[in-house]
Structures
1.
Amino acid sequence: MNFARIDVRQVIFDLNGATPRDYDVVLVRCLSHSRALYAVKILQEQGVRTVNSYEAIATCGDKVLTTLALIERGIPTPRTAIAFAREPALKAVEKMGYPVVLKPPIGSWGRLMSKLNDREAAEAVLEHKEALDKSQDAPFYVQEYIHKPGRDIRTLVVGGETVYAVYRSSTHWITNTARGGHTSGLPLSPEIDRLSRAAAEAVGGDIVAVDILEDADGSLLVNEVNHTPEFHGAMQATEANIAGKMVDYILKIAS
Amino acid sequence: MNFARIDVRQVIFDLNGATPRDYDVVLVRCLSHSRALYAVKILQEQGVRTVNSYEAIATCGDKVLTTLALIERGIPTPRTAIAFAREPALKAVEKMGYPVVLKPPIGSWGRLMSKLNDREAAEAVLEHKEALDKSQDAPFYVQEYIHKPGRDIRTLVVGGETVYAVYRSSTHWITNTARGGHTSGLPLSPEIDRLSRAAAEAVGGDIVAVDILEDADGSLLVNEVNHTPEFHGAMQATEANIAGKMVDYILKIAS
Amino acid sequence: MNFARIDVRQVIFDLNGATPRDYDVVLVRCLSHSRALYAVKILQEQGVRTVNSYEAIATCGDKVLTTLALIERGIPTPRTAIAFAREPALKAVEKMGYPVVLKPPIGSWGRLMSKLNDREAAEAVLEHKEALDKSQDAPFYVQEYIHKPGRDIRTLVVGGETVYAVYRSSTHWITNTARGGHTSGLPLSPEIDRLSRAAAEAVGGDIVAVDILEDADGSLLVNEVNHTPEFHGAMQATEANIAGKMVDYILKIAS
Amino acid sequence: MNFARIDVRQVIFDLNGATPRDYDVVLVRCLSHSRALYAVKILQEQGVRTVNSYEAIATCGDKVLTTLALIERGIPTPRTAIAFAREPALKAVEKMGYPVVLKPPIGSWGRLMSKLNDREAAEAVLEHKEALDKSQDAPFYVQEYIHKPGRDIRTLVVGGETVYAVYRSSTHWITNTARGGHTSGLPLSPEIDRLSRAAAEAVGGDIVAVDILEDADGSLLVNEVNHTPEFHGAMQATEANIAGKMVDYILKIAS
């Protein structure tokens, strides 16, 4: 079994060329959502199987589409409203009640995620966001703030099997590992297992990480699904052979 | 039959709300590609039929996806290469040979379309495009320049039927009506009819305009497919009852 | 006496050409700070007197330079800190204590002015501002919030004389007329007169509007000095012949 | 004699604080033009002498102001026109005749400098530049292309004395060392010496590098003056003790 590493930033994709199908499976690890989508679409046209699929990357990479996919399957997720202009976005924020979370639909590592505690914060952030997105027309994604207990739950689903569950804890409301959150192990309860697999299936993900929030009353909500999971934190905190599980799965679908 | 006009910039889309299906069909005329896609996705989740569909808008609104869809069906289209960085984009330009056309994948009215006649122009425009797209990660879309005879052909396909064909002529290589091009009638030849319907089908379009280029040897190439066709120019140049055809089609699928 | 209206967006400025001095005085009303500065610099090189001068426009158009000019003359103004990166800006905010005001150094009409009431608002707005200013390297301008009584005071100084004083009242903390503030007359007290003239002199302004804030203890602070004053609100609220005063002054320096 | 290195990105500048004058002289090496200007203005208010001065940095860091300063002193420089909108900029290009150079007024290392050889290149680059500068209102700086012999001349002036002259050669029309140009020694002719010192004086520069172009007829033109000279290339190509000359000068003005 051979493998190679492709840097899409070095490649010229000749759309009309008689492109040989050089690979059986491509594991996508692009940080850029846009590049991942285009590259996978082109590979798919050449008959290459990608992990994750175009549809899964499109859905997971955009929080609006993730939320819609979760709601469609009846999976619990925080209340969310979308608007395309500052005025209705402010109305949606006020209607939802403070605190509220504003997120860029496309983006990772908690970048530009805002917790708004009052109207003056909402006005300021919405105006900045509007100025920032002038050319991108990104919608305003307004979400209720979940009063979670200083941590969230993160699981990894590979080929329909939940591989691990960990806590990510932080004194900051953004519990992202990239922002200094701490990772610790967690026994995989049936409910977390079921929710994780349901979320992976809802977005059509082969290999995805699932973000789960615990509400004040203990109920669980799926927050996000990540199609290029990072797991250096989890490797310290669990016994699971994470990379091994991923490679085994890829070899299985390659054959 | 009732109808209403919706300005998506005024709407709060409550993703979790029990949203009643207020409309049978929605005709999408958003200028913003991003807003059109999100709004149509949300409507579709509510069971509303849209014209065009999410898939058609996604494909037509992005020139990379349009080109891939045309090539997949074997429809003749200009040679095209994609790159994600300035260096391979310059190599793709030089390999294709001057003149070459650089287009933003998403955008309309000929905006930011560049004809590059030499390497110094290519270097300058690619550097500007890179600076401009810093936050958007838009790929470089490099296409052979077709030596067309001062005009291109534009047709409208509604529900699988070609409604009209017109020439758009201009002394500028961009023959867009919005840029001052002149529109005149054209008898609908079997080849133009067949190509138009094939292009509409390739992108899954209910109501689309098809841009066709005549190469130096007279052969025809489908250039772009537009999912929110404007037709004020064509209304002067043809006898076709354009708006009527569109309304009839929408009423038909509504029932 | 002849006059003409120049739209700088229509002009080609030939820097090397033998440029005739076409005008005695030019009254600058550019909305763009950058265009005003360049145009006035070029006119000044040709020996044309401008109102305001290059130096006054440079100072008034940039809140950092205004604040420095006011402090240099000992004119009371809110406490202000500057930083060039997000981390020291956040430290400056926390050190100053909430609420705090963040302003873009260049800009008008209250655009992108933010009142930050807590650390989560500060983090969100500073991150958005950093993303927004990537290419502009605009500094973070952090200013104590003055607990003013629902209004501020605006005066106009023409050629060293205070022409009027008005209140601008609003339920919003931004009392800008362009944002719906209400304007009403105010007797010109000796202190307001003295402060207005001192501020105009500090920035070298021929015709400038002066923004004055009343602190909780009644003391007055100069907030901003505006080099292209708008006065439609003041025209309703005062008896002063505002346009006449400005024209008289311009004619006087033209002769 | 003590010294310290200041990273302005770490500093909180308290504008109102009783700021002690910590330094006698500050040598400015900021890459960001905006940060350099603000930091120097604040230092200057505190009574600190900076090299270069605020006025020199403001002039050298902006090609429009440099060109105006050179023309005012009668120093030969390429013909230049300024416009604030795409239409007059295109007219200025066509009037000047191809090839023409378009430069961002603020910027270094040859970044975004464009050589335009025909109208289609001009249209494409001007449209991209306009889109890029939407928020910055940077003017269009249009300059005649000088048919130089594959090299330009670069000199360093320290305290009114020309320290060295070198050629920078390249097969690319942009002969910047940062872009791979080659540096070689050059005897300092009286004309180059005189022109260099005149240019430094025109911009008020303590320590500046002067860019000189040789026209097809052998005449010399001052192109740019750089207020934060880099000299790693020149160190290989000349005997001059460059850093020593700079330090000596700074010590002299410090005492």
2.
Amino acid sequence: MKRAVVLLSGGLDSTTTLAICRADGFESYALSFRYGQRHEREVPAARKIAKSLGAKEHRIARIDLRVFAGSALTAEIEVPKARSAPEMARGIPVTYVPARNTIFLSYALAWAEVLGATDIFIGTNAIDYSGYPDCRPEFIRAFEKLANLATRAGVEEGACFQVRAPLISLSKAEIIRRGISLGVDYSLTHSCYDPTSTGLACGACDSCQLRLKGFREAGLVDPIVYAT
Amino acid sequence: MKRAVVLLSGGLDSTTTLAICRADGFESYALSFRYGQRHEREVPAARKIAKSLGAKEHRIARIDLRVFAGSALTAEIEVPKARSAPEMARGIPVTYVPARNTIFLSYALAWAEVLGATDIFIGTNAIDYSGYPDCRPEFIRAFEKLANLATRAGVEEGACFQVRAPLISLSKAEIIRRGISLGVDYSLTHSCYDPTSTGLACGACDSCQLRLKGFREAGLVDPIVYAT
């Protein structure tokens, strides 16, 4: 069975991606991060998801992204709430974490190399998303090129790394339908950037709004509980 | 004054690079890592060096690279000693840490973006080096391309990131001569992969051997103390 590393935040997109990875016949190695995110609640969610979707291993790397701050997700900057669709479409929001996906993919690459894997799955999406630059197809392609030049596997063994982003051109509703068809239990997932102290999703941040819109458009009810 | 982020391990190459960064007129922001390296002694060395070379700030990010192991520098794998030059030339050694420079540069990119800097200095060298794939010019160029696609600065502000590797085509002797001319105090630097419990350099690992050869070829005496 071919191995693949899957970046698993514990949110809706990465969970669906893990289910796709398995359905594509890979033995999946899930990787999560504690990076000082205000919504660290996603990490225990990821642990349950990895188990429920039969990941072969799940590792959680503790890394420090607060060292530079610069984002509403890692510093004392307010998470924007109840933004309209045109507001969301206007540029990259303060929840952008500088170079986050570059850092996450670099770690995935390191683990892939140790495992002898050449496939890395990431749940980035460039349709119903927050406009983050490191979610776009051209970023993913550039990382693949880098990966082949950066590693012993690429240089000595001619390994050709593939960064698979199966959700990149799907709408949120399509992602949810795909996940449901693969048996994903979305009640386990956590998407909110700014949960309440008891762990409930706020329902108003960009991430909650995109998620709720997705379920609405898919004609389904989101199984998680919202604070509002 | 233009800002630049400098990757500073505390070794001979990165120290010289910091001196060059300053001589080139940049305000320098030095970045080091505790990543579970067996030679963590390099981190306090980096602290003294950053101070002595007038870095504006020095940050130390604590990140976990032991989570995947895979290298003699982060796992219980023996560091090779007393290898001959032809042995060293034969492929990538076990001291290679998977994706390390990709991870380090990703962090440097994150900090650069927060600082509004577009220049990143790295002390990689492709002449007197250990054959690591992520030290070569093609790797550096691929990372620059990625950086421009990965960041808000690159996408929204048209920033053009430059990864400067001023040592890349110098011999170790040339690096040392350059550093001396810039006032570098090499007694502060630590290069050994496998120091003794009291912090002395072993004199036999690849890194010690390349360093000693450099000083010899430069007609200078290495000011640090060796165990043998």
